[in-house]
Structures are given as C-alpha cells and as structure tokens.
Write a structure and sequence with these properties.
The protein is an alpha+beta fold and 206 residues long. It has a single domain, classed as Alpha-D-Glucose-1,6-Bisphosphate, Chain A, domain 4 (2-Layer Sandwich). Helix content is 24%, strand content 30%. It is built from four helices and seven strands; from the N terminus they run βααββββββαα. Strands 1-7-6-5-4-3-2 form a seven-stranded antiparallel beta sheet. A hairpin with a 5-residue loop joins β4 and β5. The two termini are 20 Å apart.
Length: 206
C-alpha cells in the first residue's frame, strides 16, 4: 500500500544515497475493528518511549526528549528530539547516542472516518548543547525517516520510509567516521529493516 502522505511531502523525494520501505498490513473484520486498531497504532507511533517494548529485545532504545534535550513522558510533538541507543559502537562524536529531531507530525481523517492516517518525520541533528554543531547520527542530515500508520476501510497499515540515507563522515575523529560507515553499510545490508519490521508489526499488534 503506497503512503498517501507522500502527496503532503511527509516522505521526501529520493535524490541521493539509499532508501528503504518497510511496511506491515492487517485486514480487520469490520470498520469498527479497523478504527480501534488504527487508534491504538496511532498512539503507539507517537509513544516513542515504548517503541522498544513493542519491537522486542533486539531493538534499539528510543527516548523522547523536548527541544532542549530533557527527557519527557508524553506523546511526541513537532520539535521534540529522539535519543537513540543502537547496539554496537558509540555514536559519531564519541557520545553514547544518536539523535534525530521530529520535524513534522501530520494527521488527517476523511469524512465518516473511512480513511485516516498519522505520520511523523524525523531527521538527524546534533546532540543537545553539543559544540561544534556536528550531526550526532550515522546518517547525514539530508536523511529522513517517515513513520506512518494508515486506515483505509477495513485495512490498517504501518510503514517506515527512509530517504536520502548517506553515511555521516563529518566527525573529526577517524573512529567516529568509520563507525558511521559501518552502521550505514549494515543498514544497506538490511539490519535497519529488521529493526523497522519489528516496529511496524508491533504498532499493529492487536
């Protein structure tokens, strides 16, 4: 199922580097069941602090922070930061985490709720209060990840759409740049798809 949100530019045009599409779909027995599943999936999508809980033991740890980098217990909002702890070596700048910013959240529902969708797009950024302003992520800040849950009739789907994914080789340390290339290669080989597949299945768990 192609994401309707692309027409609203939630999923950017692919121009350079790698890209990925990871989706999962559930067909329910009734419109009522579809609406209930969509509402649950929508809440799970924005409840970033519990992504690991629904993705499984091998998942990265995602932590929601406000725009200043302070941990918050709530659903995601535009401008928030997400701290990511992935299995493996430390992040690009020698810190423990990678960071992304929630740059857009989009939600819409059609007449009589026959279709609805909610999406969130994130982009790599520097760690809060970090100087100099190097991106603290294994991808360059041209990369985006768009997370979408959608309902059409009795069908509910969830997807993660990565675009313009290139390794961040700007860290001053050789080991930092090398680490990012290694993680990027792992993403190309499908390791990140395993992560996102677990997430989209978890979003639609009944």
């Amino acid at each position: 199922m192609n994401p309707v949100l692309s027409s609203h530019e939630l999923v950017p045009t692919q121009q350079q580097g790698g890209q990925s599409n990871t989706t999962h779909t559930v067909k329910t027995e009734s419109q009522k069941e579809a609406r209930a599943l969509y509402q649950s999936a929508k809440t799970r999508l924005l409840d970033v602090n519990h992504w690991k809980d629904i993705s499984g033991r091998q998942s990265a740890v995602f932590t929601l922070n406000d725009s200043h980098g302070h941990f918050v217990r709530r659903l995601a909002r535009e401008g928030d930061l997400i701290r990511i702890s992935i299995p493996g070596p430390d992040a690009a700048d020698g810190q423990e985490y990678d960071w992304v910013k929630v740059e857009r959240i989009f939600e819409t529902t059609t007449h009589r709720n026959s279709s609805a969708y909610t999406g969130m797009r994130v982009r790599p950024v520097k760690a809060p209060e970090k100087m100099p302003a190097e991106v603290s992520h294994f991808f360059k800040n041209t990369a985006t990840s768009s997370f979408i849950v959608e309902k059409r009739g009795k069908i509910v789907s969830a997807g993660v759409y990565g675009r313009n994914e290139q390794p961040n080789t700007t860290p001053r340390s050789f080991l930092g740049a090398l680490r990012n290339v290694v993680v990027w290669l792992g993403a190309l080989l499908g390791l990140s798809k395993v992560q996102w597949k677990s997430l989209v299945r978890g979003l639609l768990r009944e």
